[in-house]
Amino acid sequence: MRRIGDTAIAAVTVVALGTGVWLLSTSTDTGTPPQPSAAEGRPDPGGERGAAHPLMASPPTRIRIPAIRVNAPLMGLSLTASGSLDVPPPAEKNLAGWYETGTTPGDTGTAVVAGHVDNTEGPAVFYDLGALKRGATIEVDREDATTAVFTVDAVEVYSAKNFPDAKVYGASPRPELRVITCGGGYSRSTGYQGNVVVFAHLTGARGT
């Protein structure tokens, strides 16, 4: 399987992972998704410790993030004609996707998972992603009956125009995971202003 290499895939379009239309009929004081704090964006000084050995490649089937009550199936995502990452169907609120031409979660390299923050009806699968804390656990079930267990190193938010493709999508010498959704504040005229990105690395596995 082709890995995400030096030529990173284009940034996820902010509009694609959340419309914010439902916010127009609710209070934006209580309706906007949480955003990462500055502290969660700083690198974890212990992030290099506890890294697990890579797993053999196997497509993922489900992602669980207990701290924010995520338990969702995963579908394969490809690239659009413009080179950006495609997204799951907006109507499927509890569905996330993974970049199936890249690294499978648990294998050496950078695996990418993306999902909607909301749709026209309200919050979606990764609505609370910005509230995730460093040290939280992300579990990914795989087709080979193993579960890859990741530990969150940082949670950051980037504006669309300054999205760091290489940092987010670049190759890694160890098994890492990126989880992406819309964020960066919401404007009625332009929609979401950027993306929330979770950085995590493999720290364990079950079923091996």
Automatic annotation (TrEMBL):
Residues 41-51 have a biased composition (Basic and acidic residues). Coiled coil: none annotated. Keywords: Hydrolase. InterPro entries: Sortase, Sortase_dom-sf, Sortase_F. Residues 26-58 are annotated as: Disordered. The keyword Hydrolase applies. SUPFAM superfamilies: Sortase (SSF63817). This is Class F sortase.
